[in-house]
Amino acid sequence: MINQKRRSKKRKLKIQLKIQKVGFYIIGFPYFIFHLLNILPATATTSEPVLSIVQSEENANQWTGITNRLQATGVKYCVIPLSSVKNAADWGDRIILFLPNVELLTPAQAIALEEWMSKGGRLIASGPVGTLSAPGVRQLLRTLLGSYWGFSHDRPQKLQPSPKAKFLEWANQNGLFGEVRGGVVISDNATTQTAAVWGAEENPAAVVANERSTFFGWRWGVDAASPAQLDSAWLQTSINRFLKRSSTAPTKVAGGSQICSTAVAKAPVTPTGQGDRGTGGQGGVRS
Questions:
Q1: Which of 128, 183, 195, 277 is buried deepest, with most CB atoms within 10 A?
Q2: Which helix (H) or strand (E) holds 145?
Protein backbone atom coordinates (compact mmCIF):
# COMPACT_ATOMS: atom_id res chain seq x y z
CA MET A 1 0.00 0.00 0.00
CA ILE A 2 2.81 2.33 0.95
CA ASN A 3 4.68 1.43 -2.25
CA GLN A 4 1.60 2.20 -4.33
CA LYS A 5 1.31 5.67 -2.75
CA ARG A 6 5.00 6.34 -3.45
CA ARG A 7 4.62 5.26 -7.08
CA SER A 8 1.53 7.47 -7.41
CA LYS A 9 3.42 10.49 -6.05
CA LYS A 10 6.29 9.84 -8.46
CA ARG A 11 3.90 9.69 -11.42
CA LYS A 12 2.27 12.97 -10.37
CA LEU A 13 5.70 14.62 -9.98
CA LYS A 14 6.77 13.45 -13.47
CA ILE A 15 3.54 14.75 -14.98
CA GLN A 16 4.03 18.16 -13.29
CA LEU A 17 7.59 18.37 -14.58
CA LYS A 18 6.45 17.57 -18.13
CA ILE A 19 3.75 20.24 -17.93
CA GLN A 20 6.30 22.81 -16.71
CA LYS A 21 8.68 21.93 -19.56
CA VAL A 22 5.94 22.20 -22.17
CA GLY A 23 4.88 25.54 -20.71
CA PHE A 24 8.46 26.77 -20.84
CA TYR A 25 8.79 25.86 -24.52
CA ILE A 26 5.46 27.43 -25.38
CA ILE A 27 6.34 30.68 -23.61
CA GLY A 28 9.95 30.70 -24.81
CA PHE A 29 9.27 29.81 -28.43
CA PRO A 30 8.32 33.35 -29.62
CA TYR A 31 11.44 34.82 -28.01
CA PHE A 32 13.55 32.11 -29.64
CA ILE A 33 12.07 32.99 -33.03
CA PHE A 34 12.61 36.73 -32.51
CA HIS A 35 16.26 36.17 -31.61
CA LEU A 36 16.78 33.65 -34.40
CA LEU A 37 15.49 36.05 -37.05
CA ASN A 38 16.88 39.12 -35.31
CA ILE A 39 13.38 40.51 -35.04
CA LEU A 40 12.09 42.41 -32.05
CA PRO A 41 8.43 42.59 -31.06
CA ALA A 42 6.71 45.64 -32.54
CA THR A 43 6.91 48.79 -30.46
CA ALA A 44 4.79 51.90 -30.65
CA THR A 45 6.20 54.58 -32.94
CA THR A 46 5.52 58.28 -32.84
CA SER A 47 3.43 59.91 -35.55
CA GLU A 48 5.18 63.22 -34.86
CA PRO A 49 6.93 64.67 -37.94
CA VAL A 50 10.72 64.85 -37.65
CA LEU A 51 11.23 66.59 -41.01
CA SER A 52 10.52 70.13 -42.18
CA ILE A 53 10.69 70.78 -45.90
CA VAL A 54 11.20 74.22 -47.43
CA GLN A 55 9.04 75.48 -50.28
CA SER A 56 10.46 78.33 -52.37
CA GLU A 57 10.02 80.04 -55.72
CA GLU A 58 12.67 77.79 -57.26
CA ASN A 59 10.96 74.52 -56.37
CA ALA A 60 7.34 75.64 -56.63
CA ASN A 61 6.85 74.13 -60.08
CA GLN A 62 8.43 70.89 -58.77
CA TRP A 63 6.25 70.73 -55.67
CA THR A 64 3.90 68.01 -56.90
CA GLY A 65 6.81 65.65 -57.58
CA ILE A 66 8.44 66.53 -54.26
CA THR A 67 5.34 65.89 -52.17
CA ASN A 68 4.44 62.73 -54.12
CA ARG A 69 7.85 61.30 -53.22
CA LEU A 70 7.50 62.32 -49.59
CA GLN A 71 4.10 60.67 -49.34
CA ALA A 72 5.32 57.51 -51.09
CA THR A 73 8.20 57.31 -48.62
CA GLY A 74 5.77 57.58 -45.73
CA VAL A 75 7.72 60.42 -44.15
CA LYS A 76 5.63 62.75 -42.02
CA TYR A 77 6.67 66.35 -42.58
CA CYS A 78 6.00 70.02 -41.99
CA VAL A 79 6.13 72.64 -44.77
CA ILE A 80 8.02 75.90 -44.27
CA PRO A 81 7.48 78.61 -46.91
CA LEU A 82 10.88 80.23 -47.40
CA SER A 83 9.28 83.65 -47.67
CA SER A 84 8.18 83.35 -44.02
CA VAL A 85 11.70 82.73 -42.66
CA LYS A 86 13.12 85.78 -40.93
CA ASN A 87 14.98 84.28 -37.96
CA ALA A 88 16.23 80.96 -36.54
CA ALA A 89 12.89 80.13 -34.90
CA ASP A 90 11.17 80.24 -38.30
CA TRP A 91 13.13 77.16 -39.42
CA GLY A 92 10.97 75.19 -36.98
CA ASP A 93 11.66 72.88 -34.06
CA ARG A 94 11.86 69.61 -36.07
CA ILE A 95 15.29 68.09 -35.86
CA ILE A 96 15.79 67.72 -39.66
CA LEU A 97 15.36 70.41 -42.33
CA PHE A 98 15.22 69.64 -46.07
CA LEU A 99 16.11 72.27 -48.71
CA PRO A 100 15.13 70.66 -52.03
CA ASN A 101 16.51 72.66 -54.97
CA VAL A 102 16.41 76.00 -53.11
CA GLU A 103 18.73 78.32 -55.04
CA LEU A 104 18.15 81.68 -53.34
CA LEU A 105 18.44 82.52 -49.65
CA THR A 106 18.78 86.00 -48.17
CA PRO A 107 21.66 86.83 -45.84
CA ALA A 108 19.24 86.92 -42.90
CA GLN A 109 17.91 83.46 -43.77
CA ALA A 110 21.41 81.99 -44.10
CA ILE A 111 22.52 83.45 -40.76
CA ALA A 112 19.32 82.14 -39.18
CA LEU A 113 20.05 78.70 -40.65
CA GLU A 114 23.53 78.71 -39.11
CA GLU A 115 22.04 79.60 -35.71
CA TRP A 116 19.36 76.90 -36.08
CA MET A 117 21.95 74.24 -36.87
CA SER A 118 24.13 75.34 -33.94
CA LYS A 119 21.21 74.37 -31.69
CA GLY A 120 21.21 70.79 -32.97
CA GLY A 121 19.36 71.04 -36.29
CA ARG A 122 20.41 68.74 -39.12
CA LEU A 123 20.28 69.74 -42.80
CA ILE A 124 19.55 67.84 -46.03
CA ALA A 125 19.97 69.78 -49.28
CA SER A 126 19.69 68.94 -52.96
CA GLY A 127 20.42 70.53 -56.31
CA PRO A 128 22.21 73.85 -56.89
CA VAL A 129 21.48 75.07 -53.37
CA GLY A 130 22.14 78.76 -52.83
CA THR A 131 23.73 79.32 -56.25
CA LEU A 132 21.62 82.44 -56.92
CA SER A 133 22.41 83.90 -53.50
CA ALA A 134 24.88 86.65 -52.61
CA PRO A 135 28.55 85.64 -52.32
CA GLY A 136 28.49 85.84 -48.52
CA VAL A 137 25.48 83.51 -48.39
CA ARG A 138 27.13 81.02 -50.72
CA GLN A 139 30.23 80.99 -48.53
CA LEU A 140 28.18 80.41 -45.38
CA LEU A 141 26.30 77.53 -47.05
CA ARG A 142 29.66 76.01 -48.04
CA THR A 143 30.62 76.03 -44.38
CA LEU A 144 27.33 74.47 -43.24
CA LEU A 145 27.30 71.79 -45.95
CA GLY A 146 31.06 71.31 -46.10
CA SER A 147 30.68 71.47 -49.90
CA TYR A 148 29.08 73.36 -52.75
CA TRP A 149 27.44 72.78 -56.14
CA GLY A 150 30.11 72.79 -58.81
CA PHE A 151 28.51 72.28 -62.23
CA SER A 152 25.77 70.29 -63.97
CA HIS A 153 26.29 67.22 -66.14
CA ASP A 154 25.06 67.50 -69.71
CA ARG A 155 23.66 63.96 -69.64
CA PRO A 156 22.64 61.30 -67.08
CA GLN A 157 25.43 59.60 -65.17
CA LYS A 158 25.68 56.39 -63.18
CA LEU A 159 25.27 57.13 -59.48
CA GLN A 160 27.37 54.60 -57.57
CA PRO A 161 28.95 54.01 -54.13
CA SER A 162 32.10 55.89 -53.31
CA PRO A 163 35.13 53.52 -53.28
CA LYS A 164 36.70 55.74 -50.60
CA ALA A 165 33.79 55.50 -48.19
CA LYS A 166 33.05 51.80 -47.79
CA PHE A 167 32.86 52.37 -44.04
CA LEU A 168 29.75 54.52 -44.53
CA GLU A 169 27.31 51.67 -44.05
CA TRP A 170 24.32 53.98 -44.26
CA ALA A 171 25.31 54.94 -47.82
CA ASN A 172 25.70 51.39 -49.16
CA GLN A 173 22.12 50.16 -49.10
CA ASN A 174 19.93 48.83 -51.88
CA GLY A 175 17.96 51.29 -53.96
CA LEU A 176 20.42 54.19 -53.68
CA PHE A 177 22.11 53.85 -57.06
CA GLY A 178 21.18 54.14 -60.73
CA GLU A 179 21.02 56.58 -63.65
CA VAL A 180 20.65 60.20 -62.49
CA ARG A 181 20.97 63.57 -64.19
CA GLY A 182 22.72 65.84 -61.72
CA GLY A 183 25.89 67.75 -61.06
CA VAL A 184 29.25 67.60 -59.35
CA VAL A 185 29.41 68.45 -55.66
CA ILE A 186 32.77 69.83 -54.57
CA SER A 187 33.94 69.14 -51.04
CA ASP A 188 35.15 72.23 -49.21
CA ASN A 189 35.79 70.77 -45.78
CA ALA A 190 38.21 68.18 -44.42
CA THR A 191 35.45 66.67 -42.28
CA THR A 192 33.14 66.07 -45.26
CA GLN A 193 32.95 62.54 -46.67
CA THR A 194 31.92 61.44 -50.15
CA ALA A 195 28.98 59.04 -49.84
CA ALA A 196 28.39 58.47 -53.57
CA VAL A 197 30.14 59.33 -56.83
CA TRP A 198 29.32 59.73 -60.49
CA GLY A 199 30.46 57.06 -62.92
CA ALA A 200 32.14 59.70 -65.08
CA GLU A 201 35.92 59.99 -65.41
CA GLU A 202 37.70 60.42 -62.05
CA ASN A 203 34.44 59.65 -60.20
CA PRO A 204 33.49 63.16 -59.02
CA ALA A 205 31.37 63.44 -55.88
CA ALA A 206 27.59 63.09 -56.19
CA VAL A 207 26.58 62.92 -52.50
CA VAL A 208 28.61 64.35 -49.65
CA ALA A 209 27.92 64.29 -45.94
CA ASN A 210 29.27 65.42 -42.61
CA GLU A 211 28.06 65.21 -39.04
CA ARG A 212 25.38 67.88 -39.54
CA SER A 213 24.38 67.67 -43.19
CA THR A 214 23.82 65.60 -46.34
CA PHE A 215 23.99 67.11 -49.82
CA PHE A 216 22.47 65.38 -52.90
CA GLY A 217 24.02 66.41 -56.23
CA TRP A 218 20.78 66.44 -58.22
CA ARG A 219 17.37 68.11 -58.18
CA TRP A 220 15.43 65.89 -55.79
CA GLY A 221 11.79 65.31 -56.70
CA VAL A 222 12.19 65.97 -60.43
CA ASP A 223 11.31 63.02 -62.69
CA ALA A 224 13.67 64.21 -65.42
CA ALA A 225 16.56 64.09 -62.95
CA SER A 226 16.08 60.90 -60.94
CA PRO A 227 13.69 57.97 -60.35
CA ALA A 228 11.18 58.42 -57.55
CA GLN A 229 12.35 55.23 -55.80
CA LEU A 230 15.96 56.42 -55.74
CA ASP A 231 14.97 59.83 -54.37
CA SER A 232 12.85 58.27 -51.65
CA ALA A 233 15.61 55.82 -50.70
CA TRP A 234 18.21 58.56 -50.27
CA LEU A 235 15.88 60.74 -48.22
CA GLN A 236 14.83 57.92 -45.92
CA THR A 237 18.44 56.79 -45.50
CA SER A 238 19.58 60.32 -44.63
CA ILE A 239 16.75 60.80 -42.15
CA ASN A 240 17.56 57.50 -40.45
CA ARG A 241 21.22 58.49 -40.21
CA PHE A 242 20.38 61.65 -38.31
CA LEU A 243 17.85 59.94 -36.08
CA LYS A 244 20.37 57.32 -34.92
CA ARG A 245 21.76 59.56 -32.25
CA SER A 246 22.36 59.06 -28.56
CA SER A 247 19.37 58.65 -26.29
CA THR A 248 20.28 61.92 -24.57
CA ALA A 249 20.25 63.95 -27.80
CA PRO A 250 17.39 66.48 -28.03
CA THR A 251 14.43 65.53 -30.22
CA LYS A 252 13.51 69.14 -30.98
CA VAL A 253 15.52 72.25 -31.83
CA ALA A 254 15.43 74.63 -28.89
CA GLY A 255 13.56 77.85 -29.60
CA GLY A 256 12.18 76.67 -32.95
CA SER A 257 8.61 77.38 -33.95
CA GLN A 258 6.21 74.56 -33.09
CA ILE A 259 3.89 75.38 -35.97
CA CYS A 260 3.59 72.43 -38.35
CA SER A 261 1.61 72.83 -41.56
CA THR A 262 1.51 70.10 -44.21
CA ALA A 263 0.46 72.43 -47.03
CA VAL A 264 1.47 75.77 -48.47
CA ALA A 265 -1.23 78.43 -48.63
CA LYS A 266 -2.42 79.37 -52.09
CA ALA A 267 -1.33 82.71 -53.46
CA PRO A 268 -3.90 85.46 -53.89
CA VAL A 269 -5.26 85.60 -57.43
CA THR A 270 -3.92 88.51 -59.46
CA PRO A 271 -6.15 90.63 -61.73
CA THR A 272 -4.99 88.52 -64.68
CA GLY A 273 -6.31 85.41 -62.92
CA GLN A 274 -2.89 83.92 -62.27
CA GLY A 275 -1.37 83.26 -58.87
CA ASP A 276 2.03 84.59 -57.90
CA ARG A 277 5.02 82.42 -58.69
CA GLY A 278 6.18 80.02 -56.03
CA THR A 279 2.97 79.28 -54.16
CA GLY A 280 0.20 76.77 -54.28
CA GLY A 281 -1.48 74.11 -52.20
CA GLN A 282 0.19 70.76 -51.64
CA GLY A 283 -0.20 68.70 -54.76
CA GLY A 284 -1.74 71.67 -56.60
CA VAL A 285 1.34 73.59 -57.71
CA ARG A 286 1.97 74.17 -61.39
CA SER A 287 4.36 71.67 -62.95
A1: 195
A2: helix 135-145
